[in-house]
């Protein structure tokens, strides 16, 4: 229910209407292709999104907000969409200003898939909580991970001294061994650098492919 509450995938949320948490709010997607005004530059779009987020923090009351949660590069719902430049750096600053945790979902885009180990590295920030999965085990074994900043761990140590959580197959030795083997191969074969190199090749070829129309007939270049 928590996952469906923060999700904006309407088709998946439909069966759970009435069960989602009421203490969750959403802001506009950082999706330039659909939401940037034709008269806006990328920087102006970023500024508008951040102003909306700051206004939402104020509306809810920043002292009531535990975390801002976002998928660094959107996956199934939008199809590998990156936020406009400077967006996450601005979000980090707003969260720091109000004492709000920054929680980034890198299940899809983390562990080297964007040409850096974490996608958020390209914004020069460090989140407080990060989830990773797909690239961690390379599809050879089911495994996920939650990475937590020491400032969060320190608070837990000063309080309950435990993260009250549990799953039947957590710390499964086969999954952990597979993930370790995958990460060693990623490092040995310089696969993250290779991803960055081939990403530039793909970008050039896509941009050379021309322009197409947005839904509704408005002309616009595709974003990468």
From TrEMBL:
Keywords: Pyridoxal phosphate
Pfam family, any one: Aminotran_3
PROSITE patterns listed in its UniProt record: AA_TRANSFER_CLASS_3 (PS00600)
Family: Belongs to the class-III pyridoxal-phosphate-dependent aminotransferase family.
Protein name: Aminotransferase
UniProt organism field: Neonectria magnoliae
């Amino acid at each position: 229910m928590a996952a469906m509450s923060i999700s904006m995938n309407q088709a998946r949320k439909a069966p759970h209407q009435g069960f989602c948490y009421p203490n969750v709010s959403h802001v506009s997607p950082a999706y330039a292709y659909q939401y940037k005004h034709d008269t806006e530059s990328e920087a102006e779009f970023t500024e508008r999104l951040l102003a909306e987020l700051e206004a939402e923090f104020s509306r809810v009351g920043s002292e009531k907000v535990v975390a801002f949660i976002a998928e660094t590069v959107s996956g199934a719902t939008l199809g590998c969409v990156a936020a406009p430049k400077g967006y996450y750096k601005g979000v980090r600053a707003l969260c720091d200003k109000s004492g709000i945790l920054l929680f980034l979902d890198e299940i899809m885009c983390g562990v080297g898939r964007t040409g850096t180990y974490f996608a958020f590295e390209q914004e020069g920030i460090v989140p407080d909580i990060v989830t990773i999965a797909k690239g961690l085990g390379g599809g050879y074994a089911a495994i996920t991970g939650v990475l937590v900043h020491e400032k969060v761990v320190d608070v837990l140590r000063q309080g309950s001294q435990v993260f009250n959580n549990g799953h039947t197959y957590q710390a499964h030795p086969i999954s952990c061994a597979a993930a370790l083997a995958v990460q060693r191969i990623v490092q040995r074969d310089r696969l993250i650098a290779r991803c960055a190199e081939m990403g530039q090749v793909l970008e050039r070829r896509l941009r050379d492919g021309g322009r197409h129309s947005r839904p509704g007939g408005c002309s616009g270049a595709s974003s990468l």
